[in-house]
Design goal:
heterodimer, A: 477 residues, alpha/beta, eleven-stranded mixed sheet, eight-stranded parallel sheet, 19 strands, B: 249 residues, Rossmann fold, six-stranded mixed sheet, four-stranded antiparallel sheet, globular, binds adenosine-5'-triphosphate, binds magnesium ion
Chain lengths: 477, 249
């Protein structure tokens, strides 16, 4: 009784781990200049983009895979991976979708239209959603907001792309960013003009055409002076990719008085209890608070992937700019997550806030790695960091690696860290009041993550809570 | 009518036998006070009744409403009407007190085939109870027991009892740590809930609460056994002589 049962509850199968048999046009495995030319040609890219890709590729060839993260995995054979899969052929209707998948979606409370999109049904054929999408895009257009795939942006807005792509995450930044720069398949582009407050949450839900993007996504969001945008990345989309490696890059630029909210829910396939299978998630996300009083907020809920290597960061360049990072990371099974943030203070009176909640169960290993760096110029800079870890069971681990580099005497930095266990006593207390064991675990976990979940946009928060439950729920009930 | 029969109950925590053959009958609608020296096994007996996973029953049985409960899950026992106020209520950070209470109440209502109370209905009920108990309203918006003072935790246990309206109530040292006014309020709350059907098992070290509540029975528990059962006169003897008059079991 007791903790063993909790363990069973947590040991639920990956409900969304399914395969759909659809024809694909896949490039042969391997990565050479020809592969990159092939990708660029497939996407009808202009010459300048191909040149940038090749430059990134040549840099990448000279780089070495980083080894400092607290994760272990067998070596990745980059020549055994296929770098291009053509968009999958759409299914005709929901009847063709595995009912198990639909059940999982229903549990998550995903609307029907979105279910179709996720399952790869041709949504364009459905009148409702077409009209939803059209009115949506029209409304954005009226405001001058650009919201399209990165491929479209490369074709239609080359000046913006040339100006901003690689400006926050240079192609030479790190091994995985360089790889992404060479082979990125698609992603999202957002531009919010001066003074415009984007009236709705932008999410992949509406980007139906670009749903079947590959594993090397690239996202670029620019908020011009005084603008605001909230972007929700990913949904509870299962991974349909055979490949194990995901290396995405996200760049955000906030100009003077602009505010970008970026939320992520990630639940890629986590592998099994022995660590077989699962996605390697190596992501570079960085935001530049370019102008005065600008603000970037990262919120993430990470429940998937067998290996996660991810540090959404803020460069606080503008005076009085603000960077925030709110994170919940769950590792169970044999998952390993090394995640955290970097806050680089350059401008005067810049502020950063870090709230990180790590939950480990079974054999999960959860590391918080955070850097707060305060340059000499950042007079009056302030940082507050809180890193809390929750352990469920005895075979998991939580680690915190906070780094601080301050060259500024007037800066104030505060760091708090706690590690706690879901105790037998807490569980028993709730059960004594008639609350079943699964609900009791979920209640304690939600309580632990509350500060972060509250930061997510409403609908997203509902989805995140459902996802936490689903992650922790047993296969029974 | 017997609502609970404890028969030759032996139980251990880890390797240590703590309950060494408890025989105790408790009756519907009555108040049973349990007294005994520190370490006698009073809290262990309560934990055994509510199914705490630390306790292992090695012999004997507990019959509640005519059925053996020793193999039931703790939440099933709770839903069947057994409630225990904890001697040391645990803190659960981030779990809103009101939300927790509503979840617990609705779990019980579901078990009884009743409709769940919505947030508004529940809040009305909760606010009335809080006022009666003289609790601060902000307590219900705080995290469950987190940062509560010792006395506030005890009041919060009583609040839960009032909301959940259990049939069999175990109060483990509910009076320890309460100030004079709070003790009065808690005693009143208990007396108000005595309806001729509900049974109370009140563990205490002090006479004060028993003067307010006037128990029907007083049992003395020592070294894992019930040594004496009687009325309030037992407390008089105890106050004069201490537990040694009941020997060493
Ligand atoms: N988890 C445990 N591990 C080991 N021994 C325990 C544990 N819990 C209780 N005990 C022991 O069991 C005995 C009875 O404890 P119990 O808490 O039931 O006493 P009590 O009568 O409630 O005492 P008090 O009046 O001090 O509350 C004590 O000797 C105690 O040390
Ligand atoms: Mg005790």
């Amino acid at each position: 009784m007791g903790m063993e049962k909790v363990d069973k509850i947590i040991n639920s199968d990956y409900d969304l781990g399914f395969e759909i048999d659809i024809e694909e046009e896949t490039a042969p495995p391997g990565l050479t200049e020809d592969t990159i030319k092939f990708i660029s040609a497939k996407k009808n890219e202009p010459e300048w983009m191909l040149e940038l890709r090749l430059k990134a590729f040549h840099t990448w060839q000279k780089m070495e895979e980083p080894k400092w993260a607290k994760v272990t995995y067998p070596p990745i054979d980059y020549q055994a991976i296929s770098y291009w899969a053509a968009p999958k052929k759409a299914l005709e209707s929901l009847d063709e979708v595995d009912p198990e998948i639909l059940k999982a979606y229903e549990k998550l409370g995903i609307p029907l239209e979105e279910q179709k999109a996720l399952a790869g049904v041709a949504v364009d054929a459905v009148l409702d959603s077409v009209s939803v999408k059209t009115t949506f895009v029209e409304e954005l257009n009226k405001l001058g907001i650009i919201f399209c795939s990165i491929s479209e942006a490369i074709r239609d807005y080359p000046e913006l792309v040339k100006k901003y792509m690689f400006s926050v995450v240079p192609m030479t930044d790190n091994y995985f960013a360089a790889l992404n720069s060479a082979v990125f398949s698609d992603g999202t582009f957002v531009y919010i003009p001066k003074g415009v407050k984007c009236p709705m949450e932008l999410s992949t839900y509406f980007r139906i055409n670009a749903q079947n993007t590959g594993q090397f996504e690239r996202t670029l969001i620019i908020a011009d002076e005084g603008s605001y945008v909230s972007y929700n990345e990913g949904c509870s989309a299962p991974s349909r990719d055979e490949n194990q490696l995901h290396a995405a890059v996200v760049e955000l630029i906030a100009h003077k008085d602009a505010h970008i909210n970026y939320s992520t829910i990630q639940n890629w396939y986590p592998g099994d209890i022995e660590g077989n299978g699962g996605i390697y998630n190596f992501v570079t996300k960085r935001g530049l608070c370019e102008g005065e009083n600008s603000k970037i907020t990262w919120t993430q809920v990470e429940t998937g992937s067998v290996i996660t290597w991810k540090y959404p960061s803020c460069i606080l360049k503008g005076d009085n700019s603000v960077g925030e990072f709110y994170s919940v990371a769950i590792t169970r099974l044999a998952q390993q997550a090394d995640t955290g943030t970097k806050m680089i203070h350059i401008g005067k009176n810049t502020k950063s806030l870090i709230i990180s909640k790590g939950i480990s169960a079974q054999k999960g290993q959860n590391s918080y790695r955070g850097l707060v760096k305060i340059h000499e110029s950042a007079k009056g800079a302030k940082n507050f960091s809180e890193c809390d870890s929750l352990l469920i069971g005895d075979n998991c681990g939580a680690h915190t690696f906070p780094y601080l580099e301050s060259k500024c005497a007037s800066a104030q930095v505060e760091h708090e860290a706690t590690t706690s266990k879901i105790s037998e006593e807490q569980l028993f207390y709730l059960r004594q009041r008639g609350i079943g064991e699964e609900d009791a675990v979920s209640m304690i976990v939600h309580g632990f993550c509350k500060d972060v979940l509250n930061k997510l946009p409403m609908e997203f928060a509902v989805e995140a809570k459902a996802l936490l439950d689903l992650t922790l729920e047993g296969s029974v009930g | 009518m017997k609502i609970m029969e404890i028969k030759n109950l032996h139980a251990k925590i880890g390797e240590k036998e703590i309950l060494k053959g408890i025989d105790l009958d408790m009756f519907e609608g009555k108040v049973h006070a349990i007294m005994g020296p520190n370490g006698a096994g009073k809290s262990t007996l309560s934990k055994t009744i509510v199914g705490h996973p630390d306790v292992e029953v090695t012999e004997g049985d507990i019959i509640y409403k005519g059925k053996s409960i020793i193999n039931m899950e703790p939440e099933e026992r709770a839903l069947e009407g057994i409630f225990m106020s904890f001697q040391h209520p645990v803190e659960i950070p981030g779990v809103n007190n009101a939300y927790f209470l509503r979840t617990a109440l609705n779990a019980k209502r579901k078990h009884q085939g009743l409709k769940p109370l919505n947030a508004a209905e529940f809040l009305k009920l909760l606010k009335a109870k809080i006022k009666e108990l003289g609790m601060k309203e902000e307590m219900i918006h705080r995290s469950l027991n987190e940062g509560f003072s010792g006395g506030e935790k005890k009041l919060n246990e009583i609040l839960q009892m009032e909301i959940l309206e259990p049939d069999f109530v175990i109060l483990d040292e509910i009076d320890s740590g309460l100030d004079i006014d709070a003790l009065k309020k808690v005693s009143e709350a208990i007396n108000n809930m005595r309806d001729g059907k509900r049974t109370f098992m009140i563990i205490t070290h002090y006479r004060k609460i028993l003067d307010y509540i006037e128990p029907d029975f007083v049992h003395v528990l020592k070294n894992g056994k019930v040594l004496k059962t009687g009325g309030i006169e037992i407390v008089d003897a105890l106050e004069k002589e201490g537990y040694k008059i009941f020997g060493d079991a």
